[in-house]
Queue: 2 jobs
Job 1
Amino acid sequence: MGALRLPSLTSLSSAAAAIPRHRCRRELRLPFRRLSSTNFSAAETELPTTTTPPKPKIQQDKDRVITPRSQDFNAWYLDIIANAELADYGPVRGTMVIRPYGYAIWEAIQDYLNVKFKETGHSNMYFPQFIPYSFIEKEASHVEGFSPELALVTVGGGKELEEKLVVRPTSETIVNHMFTQWIHSYRDLPLMINQWANVTRWEMRTKPFVRTLEFLWQEGHTAHATPEEAEKEALQMIDMYTKFAYQQAAIPVIAGRKSKVETFAGASKTYTIEAMMGDRKALQAGTSHNLGQNFSRAFGTQFTDETGQRQHVWQTSWAVSTRFVGGIIMTHGDDTGLMLPPNLAPIQVIITPIWIKTDEKSGVLDATTSVKESLQAAGIKVKVDDSEQRKPGWKFNFWEMKGVPLRIEIGPRDVSSRSVVISRRDIPGKQGKVFGISMESSTLVGYVKGKLDEVQSSLLEKAKSFRDSNIVDVGSYDELKEAIAQGKWARGPWSASDKEEIKVKEETGATLRCFPFEQPQGTKKCLMTGDPADEVAIFAKSY
Amino acid sequence: MGALRLPSLTSLSSAAAAIPRHRCRRELRLPFRRLSSTNFSAAETELPTTTTPPKPKIQQDKDRVITPRSQDFNAWYLDIIANAELADYGPVRGTMVIRPYGYAIWEAIQDYLNVKFKETGHSNMYFPQFIPYSFIEKEASHVEGFSPELALVTVGGGKELEEKLVVRPTSETIVNHMFTQWIHSYRDLPLMINQWANVTRWEMRTKPFVRTLEFLWQEGHTAHATPEEAEKEALQMIDMYTKFAYQQAAIPVIAGRKSKVETFAGASKTYTIEAMMGDRKALQAGTSHNLGQNFSRAFGTQFTDETGQRQHVWQTSWAVSTRFVGGIIMTHGDDTGLMLPPNLAPIQVIITPIWIKTDEKSGVLDATTSVKESLQAAGIKVKVDDSEQRKPGWKFNFWEMKGVPLRIEIGPRDVSSRSVVISRRDIPGKQGKVFGISMESSTLVGYVKGKLDEVQSSLLEKAKSFRDSNIVDVGSYDELKEAIAQGKWARGPWSASDKEEIKVKEETGATLRCFPFEQPQGTKKCLMTGDPADEVAIFAKSY
C-alpha cells in the first residue's frame, strides 16, 4: 500500500504540503538556542554566582541540528535538552529550570513510584528544608561527606542568624530529630515515610539533570525495631527501583551493593542501581541505604521494646531524583534526538493531519479528532499537531526529536480508506512504518497499545544488548585497565583493600560501581591481589 | 432498632469491649504532646534560631483533652494539630513538619487543583529556588514588599558568595527572567505554567499552616498578548479557587478584589478569596494577581506582535498554599476535634469492628473485611481500626477527633443481621447514628456515598449560615467599629482614601479584606466620607 500512496504525496507542494514520507533524514530547523556546557559546568575557581542573562531574541529559524551522538556525546546531550525543551539554565550557576516537557517525564516517574511507595505502607509527609548546622555535625561521617557541598542561610528577615542554617542536602538529620519525638515504643514501629522535595548540594561540576546545584527527588526514611527488618526494607526499595528502571524506563540497570569506599555518608550499607549510558559511562540512578543505628545513636532515637528495654531504632533511607531523566535521555537517545520509553512518555502518540486542498481539510481534521478521541478514551497520551505554520516534514522531525514513540499520519487518502499510517520512533524509515491500519476504534486502540508495548520492550532489549556487549569479564588488573581504556565496564573478582580500590580510581578513572546481586558461581580470585574473593565487582567510569 | 441493641452492649466489659454507643462525650486519652503557641510564635526580639529538642519520652497515657474552642480558639487549634497528628514544629523557629495525616489533606488539595490547572491549559514545571538578590530589586514595589522577609544564602560550598542568593519567597522575578528567553513572538503566547514548590518568608509571627517560615504552595504564572486576556485569566483562576473552596473544602469564601493598600507587591490588581474562621477572623485563602506589565517592563519580557511591533507581555500569577489546611481546621472543627469535608478527607470512613467473645472475632473481622473491600472498590477512602490495644469507645473518640466524616461499627449482632451501624461526625450522638444499614455491597455503597454527600453539603451550609450571621452591613464608621468590636465582619460602601483605610486598621485592627464580586444594587454612600461609593467593601480582623 505504501508504494501506491507515495507518488501522490511526493508531487505535492502547496502551503501545508507533505514532505515525502520515505525520507529518513530530514533537515531540522528549530528556533531554539543551544545549551553550552561551559556555561553550566564550571571549574572550581572563577565561579560567577550568576550568569549574564542572554538578551531577548527575535524568533528566528536558523538551521539547527543536533550534534551527532558519536561525535560529541556531551554536546549531543545538551542539544537534546535544549531542542526538546526539557530544561534550561537557571540564572544561578549550576541551577536548572525544568521545562514542561522535562517535568512531565518527572511527573510520570512520580506517578509510578508514589503508588508503589503507598502500596508498601509508606506515607508521604514534609520536613522543613532548613536544618540547624549543629544537626549535620552529629553523625561523624555524614558531616564529613556533606560539609563541602552545603549552602548556608546566614541572614533571615534582615538579621544575621545566631546559628547558620543548612539548606537540606538530604534529610536524615532532621528526620531523626523528629523521629526521636514520635517514636516511643515498639508499637510506633515500623515508621515508614517518604517526601517529595528539593535538595541542594553545592556541586562544582554540574550537568543538567545529572548533577545540579538544586534537584528534585523523593527521599524515603524508615525506622524499624530490628536490623533484619531494616535490611529487608533497604533491599525491598532497591528492588522497587530496579523494577521501575526495567519496566518503566526500559533501563537495564545492574543492582548491587556499594563498596565501603562508595557507601553513603552515614550508612552501614548502600545498595545501588547502576545504568550504562550511551557513552558507556555508569550513572548511579537510585540508592537505598541501610543506616543501621548510625543516626539513631547520634540523635538518641530510641524505643521501648516488648520486654521494656530501651533500644536504638534501625533505619533506612532511599532516593531517586531528577537525575533519572538524564539517565533516560542518555540510555535511549540517538542522533535524531530524544527517544522516550512509552511508559514514561508525556506524549505517546503524535497525530499529524496532512491535507493539501482546502476542501480536504475538514475531512482530515474530523478524522484526526475522532482518532484522537478514541485513543484518549483508551488512556493513551495523545497529541495532535495541526498547526499550519509548519509543513508535515518539519513536524515529523520535530516530534521524532522530542522522542514521541509513535506517530500517526492522517491524509485525505487515509480518510477515504478509513485507515491511518503509523510510524515507530525507534525504527527509522520504511521499516518502522505501517500503512493501512483501520481507524475503527477497537482495532486502532488495540494496534496502538500493542505497538507501544513493542517499542517499550524493544528499547529495553536494545539497551540490554548494548550493556552486555560492553561489560568485560576481567581476571587481572591489566585486563581491568584495558577494558576501562576501551570505555567499557570491567567485571571481576574483588576482595582487595579500600586503598587498592582508591588506587584503581586514581590510575584508571574508574570506580567500583557495585558488587552486583547476581553473582557467578564458583571460587574466584581477586583480580588485584590473587586472594580468594567471594564476589565480583563492576568497575567503570561514571557520571 | 437502637433501643433493642443497646442493653447488650452496655453490659459488656471484656478486653475489647464496647463503650455504650449512645455516649456523646467520652474521655479522650491520648499519648500526644501538646503544641504550645509560645514555642512556635515568638515576639520580634529574642528569637532563638532553634528550639531545644524535647527529650525523648516514654509512651504514656496521660489524660489529654482538646481545649474547648470557645475557651481559647488558638489553644484549641494547636491541640487539634498536635492530637490529630497534622503537623509538628520543626527545629528551626517558625518551621513546621507536615505529618502524614496533614500532608494527605494537602495531597487531596493538590489532586483536585492539579487536574483543573491542566484542564485549563497550564503545564507544570520547576524553577530553581535560589534567586540572585539583584532580581528582587528590579521591580520597585516587589522589593519593598518582600525584602524584610527574605532568607539569604551567603555561603555555598564553603565559600562566601559574590552575590547573595534569595531563597524564593515567590517566583515572579525568576519566572520573568526565563520568560524573557522563551517568549519571542505572539505565537509563543499565552504561556501558562504552574509549579508546586516550597517557599520561604521570614515571618516573625508564625502559626502552623497559617503562617510558617517555609510553606508549600502552587504558584501559577502566565504571560499574555493583551491586558484583556491577562484579566480574564486572573479572574478564571480566582473563580477556580472559589469553586474549589465551596465544593471541595466546604468553605464559603467571599471572592473579591483587594484594595490598593492590600494588593500584592508588584501586582496591578489582586483578587482574593476570604474565608471566615470559627473565631470569625478572616483568612486570605487564595489570591490571583493581574500583574499588568509591571514585571515584563522590569525584566524586558517582550514579544513581537502580529504587526511586527515589540510589546511587553501582560501577566498573572496565582497561588494557594498549605495555609488552606489551616482554613479547613478553623472552619469546620469543633470541641471534639477536627471535622473534615468528605471530599478532602484522607479517610472518609473508619470501620470499627467490635467483638467480646473470642468466637465472635473471626465472624466480625470477616464481615469488616468484606465491607471494607466493597467500599474501597467503589473508590471510598476507608480504614479499619482493628487494633486490640484500645477499646471501641477510645477509638470512637480518636477518629472523631481526627475528623473522619463517617464511622461504621460492626459487632456480632450486625454480623447476624448482615447490617452495620453508621455514625456521622458532624451530628453528635444518637441524631447522627443510623442502625441496620444492609451490608449488601450495592446498598451499602449507595448509602455511604449518599451520606458523604450529605455531610459535605451540611458542612458547607453550616459554614455559610455562620458566615452570614456574622457579617454586619454598616453605613458609618461608628457602625463599622461596633461590628469589629463584636468580632464580626463589617460590610459597607467604601470610596475613601488609602490613608483612611490605614486609619481603620490602626484604630480597629480590621483591614479591608476585599470588594466582593457580589455587590448590592443601587447608589451608595461611603461609610467613612459620605461621598458616592461604587462598591461595598468588607472589613475584618484577619490572620
Note: Confidence is low (pLDDT under 50) at residues 1-33, 41-63 of chain B.
Job 2
Amino acid sequence: MRQSFDDTADRSYGPRHLPLIRKAMAEQGLDGFLTPHEDEHQNEYLPAANDRLAWATGFTGSAGAAVILKDKAAIFVDGRYALQVLDQVDTGLFEVRDLVEGGVPAYLETALDRGSVVGYDPKLHSPDALERLSAAAARAGARLKPVDPNPLDRAWGAERPAQPAAAVVPHPLEFAGEASADKRRRVGESLGKAGAEAAVITAPASIAWLFNIRGGDVIRSPLPLGQAILEEDGSAILFLDPAKVSEDLPAWLGNSVTLQAPDALPAVLDAFKGRRVLVDPAQSSAWYFERLRHAGAEIVRAQDPTALPRARKNAVEVEGARQAHIRDGAALSRFLHWVSSEAQAGLPDELEVVRKLEGFREATGALKDLSFDTIAGAASNGAIVHYRPTHRLAKKLETGSLLLVDSGAQYLDGTTDVTRTIAIGEPTPEMRDRFTRVLKGHLALARVRFPAGTTGSALDGFARAPLWAAGLDYDHGTGHGVGSYLGVHEGPQRISKVPNSVALEPGMIVSNEPGYYKTGGFGIRIENLQVVTEPAEIEGGERPMLGFETLTLAPIDRRLVDKSLLTREELAQLNAYHARVLAVVGPKVPADVAEWLEGACAPIA
Amino acid sequence: MRQSFDDTADRSYGPRHLPLIRKAMAEQGLDGFLTPHEDEHQNEYLPAANDRLAWATGFTGSAGAAVILKDKAAIFVDGRYALQVLDQVDTGLFEVRDLVEGGVPAYLETALDRGSVVGYDPKLHSPDALERLSAAAARAGARLKPVDPNPLDRAWGAERPAQPAAAVVPHPLEFAGEASADKRRRVGESLGKAGAEAAVITAPASIAWLFNIRGGDVIRSPLPLGQAILEEDGSAILFLDPAKVSEDLPAWLGNSVTLQAPDALPAVLDAFKGRRVLVDPAQSSAWYFERLRHAGAEIVRAQDPTALPRARKNAVEVEGARQAHIRDGAALSRFLHWVSSEAQAGLPDELEVVRKLEGFREATGALKDLSFDTIAGAASNGAIVHYRPTHRLAKKLETGSLLLVDSGAQYLDGTTDVTRTIAIGEPTPEMRDRFTRVLKGHLALARVRFPAGTTGSALDGFARAPLWAAGLDYDHGTGHGVGSYLGVHEGPQRISKVPNSVALEPGMIVSNEPGYYKTGGFGIRIENLQVVTEPAEIEGGERPMLGFETLTLAPIDRRLVDKSLLTREELAQLNAYHARVLAVVGPKVPADVAEWLEGACAPIA
C-alpha cells in the first residue's frame, strides 16, 4: 500500500510543541513568529521535514498559516478546512480564523502590542505577502523581523525528519516530447522580451520540466527540490543536493548545464550586481529578492518563464495523457465494477475502498505513485471536501447513501485525477436531483466552445449555473491545471470564479469538477480531466473556436441521473461520452468487467 | 433637434493642425508630444474645448491617443474604431496602430530616438499610464517631460472653443433618494478603513452624486466639471467655476460644504503635508499625485470612495429608473410602430430615423437630453459598432436589410440605453439565425441567478456561448454600468471578458447587449438595461441568489426570431417579457400604437 491511513499529526501537537516554539522565540528576542504552510519551495504537498504548520498545530490541510505570539496564537484556514481544523487543532490554544476574509494581516493589526517584534523566516514567505503582513504590523505599531535560524526549526530539533534525498533521474524524451536544450533555448529567448538577462527558477515543477528530470522529494509528485539560474542563451546552473544526483544525470543534462550544490546558490546570487534578473514573486520567496537586492541586481518581477510553456503540453505529452487515461480508465472501471457488485453487498469501509482502487492501479504495472491520497468519502464523509480517510475517521458504506471517490495516478506518460460519485443501494430523489444538476454543469463545461483569449474565469459559471438556478453552489474552484507526470495541481491556468487573466491555450490540461455537498448528508463531485484543443472551424461559422477533449474515461453512475432534468443536447452528450468509454476501455478490461461496462455505458433513451 | 448630423472634425484637421503643434513643440524644446483622448476630468464624452485628439487628427472616437514626433506621428485606436479611423484621419500623416495590442508604449520603444525628449501634459494622464509610458521611453533611451503650458493648447490658440460654463443646479431628493450630507458622512466614514483622512474626488459623476448636483458641462451627461476634497467627518470643499454656481446652490450644499474657485485647488493640496489622502489613480491624473507628493502628503492609492456607493442605486433611484424606462419604452414603442409601418413603406434615411425617435422622446415632455447620440445603422452601417449617422454617411433603409437603433435618454429620474434591431422587409434565414443566437445569449444573461460575490466577468460568457457554439462572437463588452441621471457608461461594475473583481451588488444597473456584426452586411444588437435584485431564496434551494430585473420595456422583433433554435425555457422567457411590455407600456401609448403593440408582443407558440 502506498497510501497510509494513519494520522500524521493530532491535537496533542499544539500543547506539546507550542511551549517549545515560544521558548525558542524568547531566546531570539521575539514576541511572535509567523508560520505559513508553504515551505522553502512553495510546495503544496510538503516533505514531512517541512510541514512546520502541522508540527506546530496538528493541522494537516494543504493551505493555512499560524501566528504564534507569547500569550496567544491563531490558526488560519479556508472554507474547505473549516471542519477539519476543529478536529485536528486544540482550539483552547489556537483561535481559528478565516485565511481569506481578513486573514493574517487583519489579525496582526488587532492582536499585536505596540512595539512588539514578530519574527519570520524569509525563505517561507512571498515578497507580496510579506509586504501586506509588514503593513498590518506597522498599523499596530509593531514590526516584522527576518530571522535565521527559524525558531520553530530549532524547537523541532532532533525530532525533525531528515530532508528528502530521493534520486533525481532523467525523464526520457519519449514522454517529455522536447529536449531540455530546446526548452532552455526557447525560454531563454523569452527572457529578453521580459527585459531580463537571466531568470531564477525555484518552483520544483519548473525545474523538473525545464531539465527533463524527475525526483522523489515530495510525496505524490515526482518533484526534485532544487533551484536553477537560466541564462538568455539557454545555459543554466542547476542546484541539486549532490546526494540526489543519479549516475546518468550529468550526461543527460549535457554541457550547457552546470551542476552545483545548493549551498553555492547564495554566492552565485551575490555576484549578480548590475544584471537584470527575472524572479517570480508568486514562486520565489522574499529571501531571493532580498539577496538579489543586496547584491545590486536589477530585479524583474514577472511570471516564472517556464510556467506557460510547461502548461501548454506538446503533442507527445498530450498523446501520453491519452494513453495514461485509457490505462487509468481501465483500472477505474474495474474498481467501479467492484463497487457496483461486491461492495454493494459487503458494505466495506472506506479504507477497503481505497485499497481496492490502489490495487487495480498497481495491477497496471505502470503506476509510479498516486497523484494524491485517494479521497473515499462515504455518506456524510463525502460532504467534507478535502476529506482523507484514516483509521480514526473511516466509515463503512451504507445502503441508501452515496460514495464519493476522488483519486489519481502518476504514470510516466501522464498524471490523472478523476472523481466519481456512486449510489450505494437506492438513491433518494434529492440525491438524483443534485447529481443531475452537477452533471449538467459538468457537461456544459465539457462541450463549451470559446475563442482564443478566453480565460478560465469566463468559463467557470457554465459549471455552476444549473446549481445557481436552484439556489445551490459549491465552495471550491471548478478546475485546476494538471502536469505531465508532475504536480496534479499546476497553474497558471485554472477555472475559477476568482478573476484571472491567463487565457486557455491548446494543450493545457484542466480538471472539470463541479460538486454539491450536503453537510452531514452526502457529497457529489463529477471530475474529468480535459485538454484544450486547437482552434477549429465550425461549419457555418466565421471564427475558429477552441474547445475541450475529455481525457478521463470511466462511466458516470446512470442510476443517479434524472433524465427529466436533461435537455436533449445534454442527453446526447452523456450517451456519446459513455459510448466512447465503452469503445476505448471495454477492450482493456477482463470479460466480467466488460460485460458490466456495457450496461454502465448503455445509452439513456 | 438635439443631435447634429455634422462632422465635428475631418481629414483636413491633421494636415492643418499638425504643423502648428510641431511648431509649438519646437518652441518648447520638445521632440514629441503625447496626446491622449482623455481630458483633465478623465471624461468619456468631452466638451469641444477638450477634444484635443480630434483637433490634432480628425478622429472623433471615444477612446484613443496620438503620439506626435518631429518627423512622424501615430494614432492609436481600438478594434471598434478600426474602420472609422481610416475614414477620418489622414493616414499619410498618422500611422494607425492598435491601442490595446502594444499600444503607445510599444510605439515609443521603437519610434523614439536616443536622447529625445517627449512632452506630456500631466493633467491628461493617469499615473499608472505615465509609468508605463516612461518605462517604454527609457528603453528607447529617451525621456518624458511634463510641460505647462500644453503645446497643443498653444497651437489651438484663439480657434479653441471656450471652456463650458453651464449652471450647476440641485438634484432634488425625490430623485437622489439620499441627502448629500448623509452620503458624505457615509463615504467619509469609509475613508478610515482605507487608511485615509481625506479624499480627492475628481470624477465628474462622483462630484454630481456626492453633492446631489447636476451640470451641463459635458454633452449628453448632466455632469458638472469640478473637484472636491472630502474629509472623514463628511465636510467638503467643492471647487466649481463661480460662473457655474446657480443662485440656490450654496443653500442646497449647506454649511459643511465650502465652495471655492478651481484656481484655489493647488494651494489647498499644497497644505496637505503629513496628511493621508486617498486619490484614485484611475480617475485622477498624475498632476494630483505629483502635487500631493511635493506637498509631503501621504498618498493612499485606492478606488474613488464614491464609486461603489454611487453604483449601488438606492430604492428611490431604482424606482426612478423603472419610471424612466416605462416613459422611454412608450416613446420607443411609438418609434418601433413607425418603423414597422410608415418606414417600411417610405424607406427614409437614417437621419429621419434619428429625428423620429428624438421626436417621440421629446414628446414625453420629460426629456433632459439624449444619453448619447443615437446610432441608427441601416444595412452595412449597422455592422459598424460605434457608427453615428451624419449627412455624409447616412444610408436609406433598404428592403431585405436590418436596421440597428441604439439610443437612450436622460430623464431626471433615470438614464436609459436601449438597442433594437428591426427587419426592413423580409429578413434572410442568415439574419434570423444570427438574431436568434444573439437573443439566446441576451435571454441567458437576463435570467441567470448567481450568488453574492459574482463578478460581471463570470457572467459574460452566458451572453456569448450561443454565438461561440456557432463559431461567432462580437468584439465589444456585454454590459456596462449606467448612472442615475448621470453618465450612460459608469463603472466600476461591468460585464466583460476582461477580468475584473467588482462583485455585482443589488441596485447596480448594467446593460445586457450581445450582438453580431457582418462587415459590409448587417449588424444585430439587442440591449436592455437590468438592475441587480436583492438576494432571494429559491424554492428547494439553500443559498439566496441574486438576479436581474429587466428595466427596458420595448418589443423585440418577432419576425427575426427562429423559434426552432429556442429551448422551451427561452421561448417562455421571451413570451413573458413581451406580455410584461404589453401590460405596462400598452396603456401609455396612443390607440394605434397599442393595437400594433398587441401583435408585436403576442406570444410565439
Note: The first strand of chain A starts at residue 32 and ends at 36.
